[in-house]
Design brief:
This protein has 128 residues and is mainly alpha-helical. The chain contains four helices and no strands. Keywords: Membrane, Transmembrane, Transmembrane helix.
């Protein structure tokens, strides 16, 4: 049986890489700039945070089994804090957040969140 953390990391890298390619393809098809709005940074930061948060949950799974849900929520809070530190000031320079700016952050965030949620749910069911 493979290590759940290693398996998750590989899935996260593959899924977010695929999402990035699809995202760029859609931007290209719609003739929008491809590498603006900190899109590369957004995918990289979200990938790193997803892996770190899942890794921390994996390390704490035995000791804090009943609190893993709250720790997961704390991880989501951390991701939003990072957004407000790294992305929000840049996006608000012109006093508005465009749909492209929103998508550049939100698409990888949601994909990572779904992957984390599904993986954590399957994992917690195995721990019971």
């Amino acid at each position: 049986m493979s290590n759940p953390f290693t398996s998750f990391t590989i899935k996260a890298i593959m899924l977010l890489a695929l999402a990035f390619i699809v995202h760029l393809t859609i931007l290209s098809f719609l003739q929008f700039p491809l590498f603006e709005n900190r899109i590369v940074l957004s995918y990289i930061v979200n990938l790193i945070l997803v892996i770190i948060i899942f890794g921390i949950l994996y390390l704490l799974k035995e000791k804090y089994k009943s609190q893993l849900g709250f720790l997961f929520l704390a991880g989501s809070f951390l991701k939003f804090a990072i957004f407000f530190i790294l992305f929000y000031p840049f996006y608000k320079l012109d006093s508005t957040i465009t749909k492209l700016e929103f998508a550049a952050f939100f698409v990888p965030y949601v994909i990572g969140l779904i992957l984390e949620s599904v993986s954590l749910s399957k994992w917690l069911n195995k721990l019971d």
